Amino acid sequence: MEMNSLPAIFLIDEEEIVNMINKTVIRRAGYKGEIKDFQSGQEAFDFIQKVVTQNGPPPQPYLILLDLNMPGFSGWDFLNKFLSLKQEFRKQFKISILTSSVNPEDITKSSQFTDVVQFSFKPLTKDSFLKILDVL
Fold first, then answer.
1. Does residue 52 surpass a pLDDT of 90?
2. Is residue 65 within 8 Å of residue 124, measured between CB atoms?
3. Could you tell me the residue range of the domain that residue 81 belongs to?
4. In the prediction, which pLDDT does 89 show?
5. Residue 30 φ/ψ region, left for φ over 0, alpha for ψ in the -120 to 50 degree band, beta for the rest
6. 9 CB-contact burial (10 Å; exposed 0-12 / middle 13-18 / buried 19+)
7. Number of domains in the chain
8. Whether the Cβ atoms of residue 16 and residue 40 lie closer than 8 Å to each other
9. pLDDT for position 84
10. Section 49-65 average pLDDT
11. Is the dihedral of CA 38, 119, 109, 18 positive or negative?
12. Which of 11, 27, 63, 96 has the most CB atoms less than 10 A away?
């Protein structure tokens, strides 16, 4: 997918510094659109739910870079709650896991979510970001 056809990229990671670094990497890769970061899965889900109910499906899908291991409302919690959205809205989001977890079970478990299109490891680099775009 052409990166600048994405209406927005959502970063979900509890560490503000990680979100800042990821924004920088994405900008240096050439993305010019909106980048919104969240430090909790619950906050991100609430925002996404508001977006889809107010605006309806966007013309192009949004990209979500999701950390799995977050305190409180984890990436897994986010994925499970995301399933509560109607399919017509869920298809407007492409979720890429971006984690430091090296647990092979996380890869297997994430592949069971049809909304997850990619599994990547931190840190995000320009090359890994471009590979994520390749699978969209």
1. no
2. yes
3. 3-134
4. 87
5. left
6. buried
7. 1
8. no
9. 93
10. 83
11. negative
12. 63
